[in-house]
Amino acid sequence: MALDITGKILQIMPTTTGTSKAGKDWVKQEFVIETQETYPKKVCISVMGDKTQELKKYVPGNEIKVSLNLESREYNGKWYTNVNAWRIEGSTGGQAESSSTETFIENTEMPSSGESSTDDLPF
Predict the structure, then answer these.
(1) How far apart are CA 92 and CA 34, in angstroms?
(2) How would you label 51-74 residue by residue, b for 16+ Cβ within 10 Å and e otherwise?
(3) From CA 74, how far away is CA 71, in angstroms rounded?
(4) Residue 3 and residue 67 in contact, taking contact as beta carbons nearer than 8 Å
(5) Are 93 and 63 within 8 A, CB to CB?
(6) What is the pLDDT of residues 10-52, one digit of tens each?
(7) Which domains does the chain have, with CATH numbers?
(8) Which of 48, 83, 89, 119 has the fewest CB neighbours in a 10 Å radius?
(9) Is 75 helix (H, G, I), strand (E, B) or coil?
């Protein structure tokens, strides 16, 4: 099952490395994002291999869009679910908000020193 999720990075955990039974080395890193919904959710997502390098482009606070797969497996009668990212990209929503705020600040006119104002707010 493939899904996309957008949110703000809350935390990036350290990388974990190991060797598989087949003798191949692997690297894994997990990060937590918080969705931007009416009731925000926190989701811990894993990246493997080269995708750990892609994650290094981002820091906590960045808005990102993650394409991910959900996979469950059974072990000793219990089920475990993995949330694995296969693509990470910067969210355009966060950049658009930032530029519109900058435009608002640039276009706001403050009263000149000769005008009286009872309110210090520019809007």
Answers:
(1) 16
(2) bbeebeebeeebbbbbebeeeeee
(3) 10
(4) yes
(5) yes
(6) 999 999 999 988 999 999 999 999 998 899 999 999 999 999 9
(7) 2-18+25-92 (2.40.50.140)
(8) 119
(9) strand
